[in-house]
Amino acid sequence: MLLYGRIDTMTETGLAEAVYLEGDRIADVGSREDLSARYPRIKKQVIEQITPGLHEAHAHPQLWGQQLDSLDFEGLTEPQAVAQKVAQKARTLPPGSWIRGGGYLFRAYPSSEMLDEVAPHHPVFLQSRDRHSSWANRKAMELSSIGAHTPDPPGGVLVRNGAGEPTGYLLEHAQELIYAMVPKPGLVELERGLQDLSRRGYTAVHHMGWCHFSLAEQLAHSGQLPVRLWWALDRDHWRETRPGWRGDSLEVAAVKFFADGALGSRTAWMIEPYPDGSQGIVLDPLELIESEGRAVLQAGFGMVVHAIGTRAVQGLLEVFHQLQPLSRRIFRIEHAQHVRDQELPRFAGLNLAISMQPMHLLGDADLVRLHLKGYEKEAFRLRDLWNTGLPLAFGSDAPVMKPLFEQNLQAAIRHPFNPRQNLTPEEVLWAHTRGAALAAGWPQHGLIRPEAPADLTLWENQHPVGRVFKGEIELY
């Protein structure tokens, strides 16, 4: 197959006009005139723009598949508006059915009373946009045996009233008390999420935890994976398997750690305190990340660490410097959302990829101004981190945000509160293609050149309209 268009090769060649595909590989790249003469009888297709296949470099595809079938609270910042949607849903379900949803962003923690009023006969469990906190009603807490005498679990907090009673708002690992009772997502949700991502033009997805690897292996063995899948294991499961490829579409590659929580839930681990005096929540202590990380690296896995707050980033850089002699794979820091000037030089010399989600700026800008007044310049340092020379990889953290390339582009080229951190459109595209491929440790991907995999994204009017996956063209 011969494709004509504006081709961003992501190589020293720069732009090209035609690419020839032979099976599942790229066979030739060049001018339209040269390739037309070279392959006169080959089927031809004209596309406005062709790039290496987009990577979704940070996603939870099973949870995204679940969210596609749950209540969507994106853009809602008031508990009353969320409760109205819950009330509407409750009227359509038999008593006792769980009501799930996510995506809200509140400035303060609400209590269960509002949900109790609109859905007294349904257990309700709703997650914040960042998934690091949740809101439950009394019915859900009763089913989960949560009461005044329930202790806070390690790495979690049950928000309580003055009498010590849980209010219905749960932070970090406290959510697991209700997770244990909620119907679990499975293979159907994982497949639904991956199929949705493929229809958005993505050819590769970097999975970032909260799903058992055996489900992905089922899809890989049956030939049902619609994307190349780079898999980071949950920390609790890595000893159950070994690193490596399962066929040509799934690589079990790394182990995921969590240094802290998230800004929206005020659980990101900060050096300077929030206005209420808190400094966030440590999830995996740095000592554990270092000690367990040694075992992970010695077993041949890579390391992926969620670090959002300034203290989490500071501590993780120290851990990576200590562990680098053991690593055979590139390290990954996920988010790196708040970085002090003092830490920028510490990125140098590390075999490290920086995985970010610029689109979170669209919702977090007001929260940065509210919670981190005077420290705004430390947030979302896209240009400063690009200038480290380390690979940047961009994703959405779906279901935290919808997996839309356009939103990352919008946020990264028009930084809401620090224009000095703007990137160019070309740099954003690089971070979704070549940069993400390097973060995965896939040097042959993210390029349009002979012998590279025939994984391409097809564009019209700056929007993905299709893709080529393993040499097969799909138009939407």
List the helices and strands and how they pair.
Blueprint: E1 2-8, E2 15-22, E3 25-30, H1 32-38, E4 44-52, E5 54-59, H2 61-67, E6 71-72, H3 79-90, E7 99-104, H4 113-118, E8 124-128, E9 133-136, H5 138-143, E10 156-160, E11 166-172, H6 176-179, H7 187-199, E12 202-208, H8 213-221, E13 228-234, E14 244-246, E15 250-258, H9 286-298, E16 302-307, H10 310-323, E17 331-335, E18 352-356, H11 361-371, H12 382-386, E19 392-394, H13 405-413, H14 425-432, H15 434-440, E20 456-460, E21 463-469, E22 472-475
Parallel strand pairs: 1-4, 5-12, 6-7, 7-8, 12-13, 13-15, 15-16, 16-17, 17-18, 18-19
Antiparallel strand pairs: 1-2, 2-3, 4-20, 8-9, 9-11, 10-11, 14-15, 20-21, 21-22
How would you sum up this structure, described in words?
The protein is an alpha/beta fold and about 475 residues long. About 30% of the residues lie in helices and about 25% in strands. It folds into three domains: about 1-55 and about 470-475, Urease, subunit C, domain 1, CATH 2.30.40; about 55-60 and about 185-445, Metal-dependent hydrolases (TIM Barrel), CATH 3.20.20.140; about 70-180, Diaminopimelate Epimerase, Chain A, domain 1. The strands form three sheets. Strands 5, 12, 13, 14, 15, 16, 17, 18 and 19 form a nine-stranded mixed beta sheet that branches. Strand 2 and strand 3 (about 25-30) form a beta hairpin. The two termini are about 20 Å apart. The model has no long low-confidence stretch (mean pLDDT about 95).
